[in-house]
Amino acid sequence: MADIEEELLLQANLFLLLVLKRRQRQPQNRRKHWFWIRKIFMKRQELGAFPTLVRELRVSDRENFFSI
């Protein structure tokens, strides 16, 4: 009887170790998402409303402004 309980306890511990190991590995497998933000959009707070942003975009990023 004690042997069966020890075996079950050992199996439960192994199962928990495997689960913990898998959880530790998961964040490494996730792909990090990187994206590029135009400098003009980061200046929203200091430049203000839409007309100011459009004017700045027209001057500083002509290629993308006129492709819209």
Q: Please tally the helical runs, counting DSSP H or I stretches of 4 or more residues.
A: 5
Span between N and C termini? 76 Å
Content-based structural category: mainly alpha
The share of residues in helices is over 70%
How many beta-strand segments? 0
Quick check: average pLDDT? 75
- Report on the biggest sheet: none
Percentage beta strand: under 5%
Topology pattern, helix = H, strand = E? HHHHH
How many domains make up the coordinates? Answer: 1
Low-confidence stretches: none
Which radius of gyration do the C-alpha atoms yield?
28 Å
- Shape call: rod-shaped
What can you tell me about this protein's structure?
The chain has one domain (1-60). 76% of the residues lie in helices and 0% in strands. It has 5 helices and no strands. The protein has helices at 2-29, 39-42, 44-47, 50-60, 62-66. It is rod-shaped, with a radius of gyration of 28 Å. The model has no long low-confidence stretch (mean pLDDT 75).
Summarize this entry quickly.
With 68 residues, the protein is mostly helical. Helix content is 76%, strand content 0%. The model has no long low-confidence stretch (mean pLDDT 75).
